Amino acid sequence: MGKLYRSRKDAKLAGILGGLAEHLSVDSTLIRLVFVVMAIASFGLMALLDIVAIFIFPKEPQSTLQTGI
Question: How far apart are CA 66 and CA 55, in angstroms?
Answer without folding.
Answer: 25
